Structure formats: structure tokens, C-alpha cells
Amino acid sequence: MATKVDWRTLASEKKIKQLASIPKEWLDRLATAIPPPNELDVCSYPRVCGLLNGRELEITESDVPSLLLRVASGEWTAYEVTAAFCKRAVVAQQLTNCLTEIFFDRALASASALDEHFKKTGKVVGVLHGLPISLKDQVNVQGLDSTIGYVSYINNPSERNAVLVEILESQGAVLFVKTNVPQTLMWPETHNNIFGRTMNPNNRSLTSGGSSGGEGALIALKGSPLGVGSDTGGRVATSIPASIRIPSACCGTYGLRPSYGRVPYAGCANSLEGQDSVLSVLGPLCNSIDGLKLFMKAVIDSKPWTQDPLAVCKQWNDEEYQLADHGSGKELCFAVLWDDGVTVPDPPILRGLEATKEALLAVGHKVIDWVPLKHMEIYKCISSIFTAGAAEDYDAVTAVSGEPIIQSMLPETDVLTSEPPASKPSSATSLSAYQLWQVQKKRRILREEYLRHWQDTVTVTGTGRPVDAILCPVAASTAPPHGATKSANYTGVWNALDYTALVIPVSKVDQKIDVKRERNTFYNATDKAQYENYNPATFANAPIAIQVVGRTLQEEAVLGMSEIVDAALKARRP
Amino acid sequence: MATKVDWRTLASEKKIKQLASIPKEWLDRLATAIPPPNELDVCSYPRVCGLLNGRELEITESDVPSLLLRVASGEWTAYEVTAAFCKRAVVAQQLTNCLTEIFFDRALASASALDEHFKKTGKVVGVLHGLPISLKDQVNVQGLDSTIGYVSYINNPSERNAVLVEILESQGAVLFVKTNVPQTLMWPETHNNIFGRTMNPNNRSLTSGGSSGGEGALIALKGSPLGVGSDTGGRVATSIPASIRIPSACCGTYGLRPSYGRVPYAGCANSLEGQDSVLSVLGPLCNSIDGLKLFMKAVIDSKPWTQDPLAVCKQWNDEEYQLADHGSGKELCFAVLWDDGVTVPDPPILRGLEATKEALLAVGHKVIDWVPLKHMEIYKCISSIFTAGAAEDYDAVTAVSGEPIIQSMLPETDVLTSEPPASKPSSATSLSAYQLWQVQKKRRILREEYLRHWQDTVTVTGTGRPVDAILCPVAASTAPPHGATKSANYTGVWNALDYTALVIPVSKVDQKIDVKRERNTFYNATDKAQYENYNPATFANAPIAIQVVGRTLQEEAVLGMSEIVDAALKARRP
Predict the structure, then answer these.
(1) Which SS3 state, helix, strand or coil, does residue B209 take?
(2) B444 touches chain A (CB under 8 A)
(3) ipTM of the complex
(4) B449: how many CB neighbours lie within 10 A of its CB?
(5) Which residues fall within 8 angstroms of residue A423, CB to CB, at 6 or more apart?
(6) Can you tell me where the transmembrane regions are (chains A, B) (predicted)?
(7) Nearest CB neighbour to B276, from listed A276, A393, A452
């Protein structure tokens, strides 16, 4: 019998291989320009590090529509666009540790093929022609690993592309990097035993969020014009949901959580496979809503249901995007969820909501208060569903390598430096199938109640319609210090209800304005810990974001309404 | 402590109440005209029993569109239409025992209200104005029981209407009866300890099928112009799926199994609640495809997703109905599944498929063979999912009344006459949540494989498209004698894959043509038992039907293609 290779050896070999996939010349040039760890805000670094020339900076700072237009007009080649983003992604990697698989050769070869096609035919191959797209580690690309943070999955390259990869490439997208995730995918921060921790480029002492934390950091630094993340909703021990939205909010990007099955998931690696009730979904992160919309329309127009049996057979609906069911967007009624009764948002979060409310009122929309309904019960339901079989799932995967299951995201518990506690996640929460069904039944009833609750707002909006969209925090806090995330009830509830939710960055923490407010009563221990955790200095420069929440399978309408919210906010900025 | 009432007492009191809900005068008039039990084919009895006059016969034998047209034009009133169907439903009840709740007073009052509205405004209230609709027992109507065959649920009237009931009534439908089901809903025959057994009107020694067997018998006798059934897919002990389609095929009606969530299910009683993986669906049974289409369009146009969070937000798509994705229906390529490798169909079933093939070739369509992929594996998967928690579910429900769980559909084991074996359904098949996830994961992979398999047919159709629809048996046998159903793999596989499937009646068993064919090799014991069970005399006059199968959420296209199949078949009838 062959001696089993120690998991630490496998992990460090993988990390060495990763480093070798970056051009040595770039690393050398960056080596002398790397900021010290105590330099927290590194957002401006890609502009000043010297690796990118003026044209490369212009390319990487273009928005998605202009980028596509300039490639489609022949002004820029797919090759030079890709090369520019490869460089900038490496800068982002050196600053925040956001990447996993790096495959520039493959990317540049496919960009060249696109240019060749364009030269020959004068036509683009599809609506994403020449657009570099980054992928969360779990999206399978043929020939590359999808470790999803597990040592057990090292050296196990994907045999075939995920359906989404097939679709993106058929539309001309250039895939070039995969991005970091937490071990198990089920954490709202990003750290694992192979690639380590991803930091927040706005303040490296803060988390980038998770589980799509690599994407959040990369997109925020413009190391990729558009990224694919995933949004699931629940972490075993503490029931903290992992998502697209938390990294978007932490890092200051836009991000969309579509409904179950709107974006094809087939062929992706995942945790808790076979859990058919609260489905993980794929969705885009980007620095503008334009990009989110473009991605969604491109994917849906490719009829993903002909390749993924779980992709919903629903065509892109332009009337819904034009807000046909929302009075054509003329006088919308938004409702603000200020406080979900589980955790009270920190001062910067409330300021973000207030600014959004004012901005919308200023352009003639209505804004009322949203009354939350049983958010704690809903949150507990999905937590029970995830924990029903999670311990066995994690055990089965980690047993292969012997790697321990990470117990905390706190830096001092990093297993690469100090051995974690021997205890495994409790399986005390494991359920029988019948018990699981009882929880799932309860959740179905809560979904029915919530829908009626929403419909009933027709009596208070004055528009003749129920509330058009809910505005709410993405989390009770802006990006917390590493390991300090206390809760994520403001995202998890929408996973449970399968509502479409879009994150819009609003502002950043300002130590002068966002002072701590006196509070003496608390909903629960988490709420208290959350309160005690807050002080404006710790959260300096952290982005502030809001969520725009619409109903199930209403991606078009949520994009349309979010554009209105975003424009209103931008109109009031100095 | 109050003495617990014996379950037999509760059951017989309920049955007595049911009888009291039928006008005594009608019962008296029918009493003298009831055919003896050995009169098997009772299809012509409603015409000759004398309870319905000429106009009532004309009304009850109209197809759905003409019926709606004549009410909308004022030629017939909703009241007289409803009254005629009430009478005919009672005839059907006396012949086949197909009803559960009978609520003629409520129906006639709501018909009168519709007539009043029409008289005042000259307008119909909706597209179903004045159409009586029967409901499978599980569809909750406020104030009425939904026992779904369980004594425990007697005297437990629904507090609110199911979402579908709200929608149908808002469109002007008149609900008037609920129909019989098997105890647990999970049998492909129809018998329970409260209402007893439903018989097949074509041959009362045969089953009406199940679990929508009451609907099958009622619609076949034209005791209702349109009925709502449900289609689930699995019976614990023997894994025999219960459906809309088996009763449709057994009784000779049309029936549609839509995809998960296309018709709102919220507010219905059900078995195995919280089982979120292989979802039960509601769908229509009718004597024409017109009626199925009308029902689906009316329901979808009512935006059920605003009332049921699990209803898919997908509007009715007329382009899909016009077969935009299928070459506008000009040269379709159908593929016939002659044999699924699990059970070989009986001679009449094969004759039905051959007739369909010839009819389609005659009008210029292509017909190739369908190669089944892993049907046994797929079938086993959904069986494991159902049995994962079913024993506990049945125990929990029956414990309330002490009623035993029915072990067999054989008449000689009827618990009302002889006590059943003391043994309960085995919980040896019960799973943990994690084990259930592993089965669900396997099923997801099988769904992906099946979709690729279907897509790959693009190379053999010659149309430039994959196969447009699969034609296949509804079961390996026509309606078997009571208790003799051996398998239902030809329906269950499509529940597992969530494909849209429509049943079309083709012919009836002809003892001269459908002779037994010599076979010596068998796939398995069920296949052998199925073969040995067949002889043309036993199955005399049993309807022969086929299924037209399309993809998930393609109800519009399946309706469109089924109309083409149906017209082709009708064109060749003498």
C-alpha cells in the first residue's frame, strides 16, 4: 500500500504550482512595489504599481459595454484586452490573494482565435466576444482542478466544462482565472488550507466576504471585468450564509443573486450535493449593473435548459425588464427593511439605506417601511436544512486527504500555522429524511406566508400594486475583520424565499459620520456581539451597500428597478 | 379521557353523510335502473338510465369550448349546465363509486351568481365562466374535508381554498364534486377505507387507475367536463407511481402531467409533505386536448406565482404552442419508445403505438425509434427518494385514527371486510438526510445524462433538431383487474426527469386482434408477471392510450404536438 501523502504537502505543492503559473517577470517587477501589510487600502495600487501601461489601465478600467464595443469595432483586440486583465489579476492576487487556478496561456490562445475569427469574417462570435470573465473556483473548466478549498480535490482536473463555461465560451467570453473560496464553500469569509485567505482591497484587515470572496476582491480591483460567483445560504456550525452578495457588499461591487436555476449550475463542483431544497445559484459580480444585465441576457438567450435539466425554461423577457408589471417604472413604491428583528444594522448600513431612500424620493418614487415577517424562523429553517447532512458530507470529503475541517475563520486558528481543535463539526444536528421533510414542509409554509404578506401591501402602497421591491441591508455590518463575521440573516432569508436580490454599493464608512450609537437592549446574543463589534475606526473605508430584492424568477424586473435606484443614488453624489 | 371513536365508525359515518349529500329523488330514480355487478361496460348507462333529459345529455356531451361558448352567448345558463353535470356525476358515482365530497348546493348557488352577473353586465366573469370542474380530493375547498383517503382527516374541513381553487373560481369555473383517491395517494389504483374502491367504467372488473382514479372514471362517463388530478410518482412498497396519466389511460380520457410548479399546488393536502425533490404536480383530465389547453392557459394567465411561491413565473407562451422551436410543426420527428428495458408492453399497447406511428407517417411526419437510457436506474432513484421517509409519514397520519395502512389493492384484502395483516410498511428503506442527498445527487446526474442523450438525437432526426417528442406507453398494460397492477415504470420515469407528458386515448382492447404473443425471456420478475397476467379476455374493452412526452416546462409545445398526433389518429379512424 502506497504511503498516503500528508495533506500539508499536497496543499503546499498546489500553492507552488499556482505561483509557477504567473509569469516570473511580472512577479519580479511587482516584488519591489508590494505595499507592506499595514497598508490597508490597496485600491489605487494597480494604477501605481507600474506593471500596467496607460493603454492597459484604460482597458481594465473600461465598463463592460464599452469594452465589448471597442473589441467589436476592431479598436482593441481580444488578445490585448485579455493580456491587460491577466496583468491586473496578478496585481490583485499579490495584494489580496484572490485567485486559485491561473490559466493565462489557455486564455490568450482563445483570445487569439477570437481575433483570427474577427479578422476573417469581420464578425464577433457572440455577444461576449473578447470579454475576460473570472470564475469562482467551483465552476468546472476542463483540465483544471476545482478544489473548492478541499485538499482532497487537488490533482483531480475536471473532465468536462460546466454548462455555463460552454455557454460563455460559445458567446466569445475569455476565461482566464478561477477565484478563491472558503473550505466547504459554506462560510461568509474566504479562507482555506490550500490557497489561504483572501483580503479586502478596501481595507486588508477586513474580510473580502465569502464564499465568493475571491471574486469580490478581484472585481473590486478591476482584475476582471466580470466574475461568476455562487450564492447558497448557510454555514453548518453558525448558520452564516455564504453568497455572491456578501463579497459584493464587502468589496464594493455590484452583484446579483438570481433565482434557483435561472443560470445553469450543471457541471459545477459543490458542497452538500443532492440537497435539493435550498439550491445554490450562480450569478455575476461586476462594477456596473450593465454588466450584470449583459451577463444574464447572454446566458438566458443561450437557452441553458437545453443543456442543464435544472435550468428554468424561461426566456429573457424584455417587457419585464421594462417594468411592464411595475407601472413602467414611473412611480415605484419601494419598502425599506430597516431592521429584521434578528440583528440591528450598524450605523453605516443605516446611513446607506437613508441615502437610498432620499435619493428615490427626490426623483419621485415612493418609499415606505417594510415589515419583516418571521425572519428568524425562516433563517433557522434553512440552517436546519443545511445541517441535516452537512457533517457527514464534510467528513466524507476531508476523509480522503486527512485535512481537518476548518472551525473558525479567525487568523489565529489558521491550520497551516497551528493545529486546530480535534473536534469535528457536530453531527448532533443531523436529521433523518423524514425529519428533514418536516423542516422543509415548515419552510414551504413560511414561503407561502411571506408571499401573502407581500401581496397584502397592495393596500398601503397607493400605486395599485404591492410593494415593487424591498430595499434592505446586505448584512448588519460592513465587511468585518477576518473571522469576526457574526451573522448573515439579511442575505439568508432571501435564499430561503428564493427571491432575486441585487447588491448596489452606496458609499464607504466615514469615521466622522458613522459614529457608534448608544443601544442597551438587544434581540439576542448575536445582535449584542454585533453591536459590541462596531466601532468606526475598525471598519475604516469599508464599502456600504444595499440589496434590492424582488420576487422569484423576476431577474429582469429586479435589474430594471436596480438601474433606477442606482441612477437615483448617482444623481445625488457630488 | 374521551373514548377514542373506532376508525370504522368514523369511516362509515362519513360515507353515510356522503350519500345524504345526493338528492334522494335522484337516488330513488336510479335505484331501479342500476345494472348488476356483472355488467362490466357501463359507459352507455348515463344515456339510458333516464335521469338526464335530452337537453341535459346534450349539455354533458358537449366539448369544453362549445360548452363555454353556449354559456357565454346566453344560450345555456351556468345553472342548467351545472345541474346537468350534478345529475350525471351522480350516475357516474352509482356506477363506479368515483366521488368523495359532493357539494351541489354550493355549486348551484355559485352558478346562479354567475348567471346574475351575466344578466346584469352582459359579460362573463372569466374564461371559464359556467364550466363545472371536478377536483381530486386533495384540492382544498374551504369548508370541505380533504381526507385523501385517510380516516384521520375526516371532519377536518379546510380553512382556506387552495390557490388553484381561487384561480378557477375567479375565472368563472363552478366546482361541484371532489373525487376518490387511494389511501396515502401513493397507489396506481383507487381504494381507501372511507369511500371504498373506484371502478373502471369501460370494464368494472378493471381498475380505474390511481391516484387520480376518481377523476378518470368521472371524466370518462362525462360526469364532469374537466377534472383536476395530480401526478406524483411512487408507491412505497412496490414503487408503483401514482398519477394523472394512469387513470387517464385506464379510463380512456386525455390527461396532462405538467412540469413541477406550472400549476399552483399551494393549499392542497398531500402525502410525504416536505419532500422537495420529486414534486407532485396538478394537471387536467378531459375528453379533448382543447380542454387541457384551455385549463392550462386560464391558470397560467392568472399569474399563479403571485399566490403560490412554488408556481413557476413563466407566462403562457403562444409561440411555443405554435411550435416555434419545432419547425412550426411542419415536419416533426417523433421517436417511439417501444420497450423501456424494464417491462415489455402487452400487445394492445404495442398496437396503439403502431397505429400512432402509421398515422403520423401518413401525414408527413418522421417517426424513429427512441433508445431508452437507464430507465430502471431512474425508476429506482425516485423510489428510494419516496421511501426515504414514507413509512414514518404514513405512520404519523394513521396513528391519529388507528386505521391500518392498506397493504394491497386486491379486493379480497379489503380491510372493511377482513382485517389486513398486522405488519406495517417496512421502514427498512428509511434513510438519513445525508443518504437521501446521495440518492438525489445520483438522480440529478441521471437527469443531466438523459438531457444530453436527447440532445444527441440531433444527428439522427434529419430535421436539424433533436427529437421533437417521445411517444411511449402509459403503462406496460391497459387497465388491469383490481389489485393486479404490476408496474408503472412508463410514467414514473418522466416524473423523475420532470418531463411534460400528455395522454391520448387511441383505441380499445379487441380480443380478436390483441392475442397473446409467445415470449420466453423476461427482463425481471415483474416483466414475467406482467406477461403472465395478460390475456385479451380479461382486458376486454380496456382503453389503449399513448403518452406524448416533451421537455421540462414545455407544456405549450407538448399541447401543440399532441394536437397534431391526435388529429393524425382521428384522420385514420373509420
Answers:
(1) coil
(2) yes
(3) 0.96
(4) 15
(5) A407
(6) none
(7) A276
